[in-house]
Amino acid sequence: MLAWALAAALAAPPAAWTRVEPTHGFDLFSTAEEVSAGKQAAADVEKQLPVLPDSDPLAKYVQALGAKLTAHAPGEKWPYNFHVVSQKEINAFALPGGPIFVNLGTIQAAENESELAGVMAHEISHVVQRHSTRAATKQAEAQLPLAVLGSFLGKGLGGQLAALGIEFGVGSYFLRNSRQAEKEADLLGTDIMYDTGYDPKAMARFFEIIKQKYPSQAPQFLSDHPDPGNRIVYVDAEIATLPHKQYTTTSEQFAQARQRAQGMKAYTGDEIAQMQKQQPQGGGGGAAGGVLPAKETQEFKHSAYTISYPSNWQVYGDSNSAVTIAPQEGVTQDAVAYGVIISGFSPEKPNSLGDATRELIAQLKQGNPDMREIGHDQDLKVNGVEAKSVDLVNTSPIKDAQGKAQRERDWLVTLPMKDGRVLYAVFISPDSDYGKMRPAFENMVRSLKLR
């Protein structure tokens, strides 16, 4: 009887007795406090980084992939939510209680859906393991006696820890994981990928791709996620304990998302840091005033097109006229300092879109003698329609503290219309705020549809 029982145990599926379980440790944060801390940190991230609107198709794809993975995440059912940062460097990070951010560069670099799923499963595992708040707890323990720590419980823990310099946000020490935390996230992420149907080896493989892509420097991802060593070895060992099955490698949705990502502007970390340092100036209120575009959008229906725009901006014009879409504070001295002007243009000699665009620019320069082009026009596709993109500089109606006119950045986009005319949109911002406005401008272009 004993021999039979032993044989049955050995024949049982390995996953029944080797499944990775979340680790535990002393944590000052209750689950409610952890969720609250994560929400606050996420709000700060969205103020500091160029985060795509949740309504963006790429963001929706990442949200859907995240939902598939979190359905198999063990432990506490955190309110997971997923976001895309328009940043070039390969990276992703998780905040306490569920918010997860994936850089655009990560999606661009992934060769299939399994690799992207691996990065996201790894971040989900950091949330499951409560790595950030457990690290914060250790820091608090090192700074205060246990009796004092005990008095924090249920009495505004977040504010008390903030007073100790403990917070969760961009660049936070508590989002930089230890090698032990990385190994725990790798192993738990392996099981999440397996249960969701993705090849778990893709996670370790993608980390190796990152190391090969940056052989002479430490990329941001490996700075925040230090290599525990032997990553492929211990991931393979964990996979060996799981019953063999067929895996999903990629999907048509991933192919479409990656193609979209490849065509999107991704800012470098240095560019984002420079944006954060720039302070809006002048009489127009600046991007910190009432001009910063809201993430929420609403649609304007013109007789020639439809376009979505930030909900805190206004439409000047009607469905049959030239239109300006701008924040109220963005219109100054009878000129547009922030916003977009959309109109039609009839070239004298209808020819190619490129020729019509150059003719339009020549006409715009007549009324704007300081306007000049930066580089050359570029081909663009707007909802399947061939388009042209041209970057320009001009003089802004906004003046600096010394009364000197600021430099303006203008982005011209042209599309051919069925009647031979050209629809054009000029997106306008002072150069100092252009980096903050560009993501909203790009979202408006992506929403533009000819009728």
Characterization of this structure:
With 451 residues, the protein is α+β, with helices and mostly antiparallel strands. Helices cover 43% and strands 20% of the residues. The N terminus is likely disordered.
Concise structural overview:
The chain has 451 residues and is α+β, with helices and mostly antiparallel strands. The protein has helices at residues 2-11, 15-18, 31-48, 57-70, 104-109, 113-129, 131-143, 146-152, 157-163, 179-196, 201-213, 220-224, 231-240, 252-262, 269-277, 287-291, 353-367, 434-447, and strands at residues 81-85, 92-94, 99-103, 297-301, 305-310, 314-316, 323-326, 331-332, 335-336, 339-345, 372-382, 385-399, 405-416, 422-430, 449-450. Helices cover 43% and strands 20% of the residues.
Largest sheet: 7 strands, antiparallel
Write down the overall geometry: elongated
Helical coverage, percent range: 40-55%
Number of helices: 18
Strand content: 15-25%
Unreliable residue runs: 1-18, 144-156, 279-289
Structural class: alpha+beta
**Which strand order spans the largest sheet, edge to edge or round the barrel?**
6-7-10-14-13-12-11
Mean pLDDT: 80
Distance between the termini: 78 Å
How many distinct domains?
2
Cα-atom radius of gyration: 26 Å
Number of DSSP E strands: 15
